[in-house]
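Quick question: what would this complex look like in 3D?
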Amino acid sequence: MSAPGISLEGQHSIGGLPLFDAELMIPAARWTCLLGRSGVGKSTILRLILGLETGGVFTGRIAATDGAALTGRITYMAQSDLLLPWLTVRENVCIGARLRGERVDVARASALLDRVGLGPHAGKRPPALSGGMRQRAALARTLFEDRPVVLLDEPFSALDAGTRADMQELAAALLQGRTVLLVTHDPAEAARLGHGIVVMSAQGMTAWPAPRSATPRPVSDAEALDCQTRLLDHLRHPRAAA
Amino acid sequence: MKLRDSLLALLVGLGLWQAIVVLTDAPHFILPSPARVAEAAYQSRVLIAQNAWVTAVEVFLGLVIGTALGVATAIQLALSRTAERLMLPILVFTQAVPVFALAPLLTLWFGYGMASKIVMAVLIIYFPVTSAFHDGLTRVDRGVRDLARTMDAGTWRFMRHVQIPSALPSLGSGLKLAAVYAPIGAVIGEWVGASRGLGYLMLLANGRAKIDLMFASLIVLACLTVMLHLLVGRLAARLTLYAQGRAAD
């Protein structure tokens, strides 16, 4: 599985009114963090790449850098775990195969659940799990899809600080080698996880220098902390220079 | 509804009834006392049981067939936008025709036997079941829909694995309504033309001034309906627990 990069360029408008111009390059096999305030259109970018309904019209180009179609090569994980409550955790992990009518590889689902630390809970139903455990199950479901491009829409934002840090590290480890776009409003998350950081505001998209150390960066990493501080400053006072 | 509450309500009702009989001194062919009705029920127990069985079968078959048709229609409507556009207005329009008004016609078409009563029950519950289940099928969480799209889910597989299970609580609500309506449909059918059933027995008793027998039939009918309501209520609760992932394994 070689992960392609993705380029997106164009304009998104609703009812003829332009909402934003976008120019985004997501390098292959790297984590790109798309950071911005709520409501700025980050999730719309993600929906455009996924080919989902956005309520508007996009004119422009979204393409994989290897020239092949993106269809069938992307999976995504949302803020809400989207687990089906009537299925067991294991059945939830393989729901994609069921929905496509493929043979369900239960052994692989169990192995993935072991990797996210949910092995002993595979037979439980989602309401019996904590928020953090449910999000780990959602991560296992994302991995089960085994696609080279993974789009993450604030998947850790509803978790408490400790669980969030754990999840960030787990996701960074398990999604290594894939092209990841992480949409987030949290500068700390972007500074910890991003190989590249793009700040999105009403004015457009700005590439932001990410720390050069390996990800996931420790919570105490000086360079990441500095990056986080300056990102937060920039989000609050967009005119301040990078 | 708890069993204890139901029994308590029943006792209060019986007490009130007896009090009215004593206070108004009503003749027994206008308002028989509970004791008299109990006696009539005991004496005519075989007759009542035979007719109650007929009504119960009509209601049960009406419920099963009506639910099957309603579920199939709701799924079809949810699968096809065209079907939804064409059929939903027709469905709503048919609700403007009171089913009671159709009873003589149904008796003419399907005869005096069970068939016309079953059709009556089916017609009366078809809409609530269809409407409730269709609502549930189309109200699936948008995030889950999006996720399924990125997983290249087939339309029918999405229906089977996601939409139907998540709509089960709505189906339960529809079934609870159906359990109340189905006996009404069957009994109205029996009033219009029948040779068996509790509705028929009530008319017969009324015509012969056997008001105590009429009351006995009425009470048995009420008991049947309450039992059905309790049973379907349990089923609906199980469906909801299942869909919420809280059913006991």
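Answer marked as accepted. Residues 54-248 of chain B form a domain with the MetI-like fold fold (CATH 1.10.3720.10).
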